Amino acid sequence: MSSEPEFRPHRVVVLALDGLLPFELGIPHRIFGRPKDERGRHLYEVVTCSVRPPGPVETDADFSIHVAHGPEALATADTVVIPASYELGPVFEEGTLTDELATALARIRPGTRLASICTGVYVLAAAGHLDGRPATTHWADADHFQRMFPRIKVDADVLFIDDGDVLTSAGVAAGIDLCLHIVRRDHGTAVANEVARRTVVPPHRDGGQAQYIHRPVPDPQMATTTAARAWALGRLREPIQLRDMAEQEAMSVRTFTRRFREEVGVSPGQWLTQQRVERARHLLESTDLSIDQVARDAGFGAAQSMRQHLQAALGVTPTAYRRTFRAGGNGVNGVEDHERVAGPR
User: Fold this and answer.
1) pLDDT by residue (tens digit) across 182-222?
2) Torsions phi, psi of 59, nearest 5?
3) How confident is the model over 1-29, as pLDDT tens digits?
4) Which residues contact 220 (CB under 8 A, 6 or more apart)?
5) Strands 79-82 and 113-116: what pairing?
6) Closest CA to 273 of 309, 248, 242
7) Structure pTM?
8) Which of 92, 155, 100, 147 shows the shortest CA–CA distance to 124?
9) DSSP result, 199-236
C-alpha cells in the first residue's frame, strides 16, 4: 500500500453578496483556478456561494448571476473570500450584520482563513474578526471604515495586509495582488509568478494604494525615476547608494527621493530592500546555492543581514523558507510565522 497522503486541493469559497462587482467576484476564480502541481492537479478548488439557497444574486451591473451553492458551502472552506458589494446596507451604514448574513457566516469553521477584497472588509469587521487587528480597504472608504470600526487599525496606504489568518485588500485590482500573495505564501514565488504571467499582470506591484489617490496631474515634462529603478534592478548584488540612483536621473538626492516616493509609494531604500527580499526568495526556492551565496547574490552581503530582513518581511529564516517551498512545492499553511505585507510606512 502507498504511504502517500491523499491529495486534496485547498478549497476556496467565495461569498457572493447582492450588489457585488462582477470584476472582483472573478478575481479569486481567475487566480486560484490556475495553479497546478507537478502532476497537473489543481492546487485550489474554487466554489461560489450565496447567503441564500442556490439562485440569482444581483450585481452592480445590468445583469445578475446564478449561484449554484448556498451558505452551507462556507462550512467546507479552507479559505473564505468576500469580494466587495455596493448593497451592504446595515453592514456599511451601521456596522452590524443582517440576520441572514450572520447565520451564513456562523457556518465557517474555526481556523478557516478569511480574506476580503475592497469593501468586503466591512463584513469581516461587522462579524468581529478584525477587532484590534490591522486592515485596509479602498482608500475612498478608509475614513468611513475607521469611524465605523474604531478598534481596527486601518492602513489606507497599502494594497493589502496579511495578518496571518485574516487578509484584507484595497479596492478593485488590489484583489489580484492579494490573491497572488496568497498563492505565493502557499506555494512560493515560482507558482505565483506563473499565474501572474498567464493573467498578464505583474507578480508584485511596488508601493501601495497611496499612489492611486487623486492628486493634481504632474507636468508631462517632469522626469521620472523609471530609469533609476531599471538600473538598480540590474545590479542588486552590488552596493547601491541613494546618490547613485539619483545620478541616473540627473537629479539631486532630495528631488530624487521626493519624486521616487510620489511615483512608487515607498522610499528608495525600502524599495531596494523589497527587491532584494524578492530576489532572495526566488533563489531560495529555485537554486541549491548556499545561504551565504544567496545573501551575496541578492545584495544583502552577509547571511546575517539577509536573515534579519527575511525575518522582518516574512516572519521566517532563510533556511525555514527554503525548507517550506522546496519540500514538494506544497507550502499551504507551511510557513508557521505568517508574513504581514503592509506596504509603505
Assistant:
1) 999 899 888 988 998 888 887 777 655 554 544 444 444 45
2) -110, 180
3) 556 678 899 999 999 999 999 999 999 99
4) none
5) parallel
6) 309
7) 0.72
8) 92
9) HTS-SS--S-GGGGS--PPPPTT---SHHHHHHHHTTT
